[in-house]
TrEMBL record:
Origin species: Ferruginibacter yonginensis
Protein name (Swiss-Prot/TrEMBL): YybH family protein
InterPro entries, alphabetized: DUF4440, NTF2-like_dom_sf
A Pfam family reported for this protein in Swiss-Prot or TrEMBL: DUF4440
Domain DUF4440: 42-146
Lineage: Bacteria, Pseudomonadati, Bacteroidota, Chitinophagia, Chitinophagales
């Protein structure tokens, strides 16, 4: 009888100890929050590059090779056409900046989107223009995010939101 009690106690300890040594898994919810914050960081880096180096440099560094740009009063530009358009941009007459308000990531972790408010400060005008934007992102094979669709909506006024 004593042997059964000792054997039973040892079995319980043997089963319990390894489970204590296993690393704690984060709930999927925490992973989703971290992924969302990481994508917002990417969008903020995109905006910082735009402010520091200009719209052309930022867009060329963050567009996917098949990226699409939706522009006001113009047909969409995709892939090489979008890149050619960006290369031809004259971005010295203004500074554009933005801040993401929100981000969402697909459960698969390979697609996401950000949206927020952008600001354009022309170098020759005494005004500031604001608008909304949405950017759809795709995670590349190397783990970096590139945008696959970018669209702006002009006209939320010239007063800071």
């Amino acid at each position: 009888m004593l042997h059964r009690i000792i054997f039973g106690s040892l079995c319980c300890v043997a089963l319990a100890v390894p489970s204590c040594l296993l690393p704690n898994k984060k709930p999927a919810e925490n992973d989703a929050v971290q992924a969302k914050l990481a994508l917002m960081d990417v969008d903020e880096a995109f905006a910082e590059t735009c402010t520091a180096k200009g719209l052309k440099d930022a867009y060329l560094n963050f567009i996917d090779s098949n990226g699409v740009m939706l522009r006001t009063d113009a047909l969409p530009l995709a892939g090489a056409d979008a890149v050619d358009y960006i290369i031809g941009l004259q971005d010295t007459g203004f500074v554009m900046s933005w801040k993401p308000t929100e981000a969402h990531i697909a459960e698969s972790g390979e697609l996401g989107y950000t949206y927020g408010i952008y600001k354009i400060v022309p170098s020759v005008a005494d005004t500031v223009l604001y608008g909304n934007y949405v950017t759809i992102w795709k995670k590349q094979n190397d783990g970096k995010w590139k945008f696959i669709l970018q669209s702006n909506n002009e006209g939320i006024g010239s007063d800071e939101p």
